[in-house]
Design a protein that fits this description.
Blueprint (H helix, E strand, L loop, with lengths): L7 H22 L4 H10 L6 H8 L3 H13 L3 E5 L7 E5 L1 H22 L4 H22 L5
Length: 147
């Protein structure tokens, strides 16, 4: 294996394209779009307000409403009134949505492991540690929680 001489920007862009392709394939295998798959992933460990979910996905109010409407009709999510503010609406996974999210996560983990297997274990560990540091620094700078 030879080391390719990519610029940092090109290396990150190419990796992003590869990860996006994997996400598209895994979402399609679950019968969903990438945005639907990302939504289920976000909802695995939180019950955000609709507005928070929209912000995480980069969608405006009408787009997030349509996305949640479609997922709700498929039995993947449900809306409920916020206990903190009766005017606000939160979103959570249904049992079916949780099952789909869990299956999608397992499939993506397998693909990520396959991809990372090209690196020796010490380099995998270093790569994950460095990416984590970048994401945490960016989250602190932007004020956006990455988790």
């Amino acid at each position: 294996m030879t080391d390719a001489a990519l610029s940092p920007a090109d290396a990150l862009a190419q990796l992003t394209f590869l990860v996006q392709k994997i996400l598209e394939e895994r979402s399609a295998a679950q019968g969903m779009s990438v945005v639907q798959g990302r939504m289920l992933g976000i909802l695995r460990d939180r019950t955000p307000l609709m507005s928070e979910l929209g912000a995480r996905l980069g969608l405006d109010k009408s787009s997030i409403s349509g996305l949640v409407d479609r997922a709700e009709k498929r039995g993947l999510v449900e809306r409920f009134r916020s206990p903190d503010d009766g005017r606000a609406v939160q979103v959570r996974l249904t049992d079916e949505g949780r099952a789909r999210a869990t299956a999608g996560e397992a499939e993506f983990d397998a693909e990520a492991s396959r991809l990372l297997a090209h690196l020796p274990e010490p380099e995998r560990t270093t790569l994950v540690r460095l990416i984590s540091r970048l994401l945490i620094a960016e989250a602190e700078e932007s004020g956006f929680d990455i988790r």
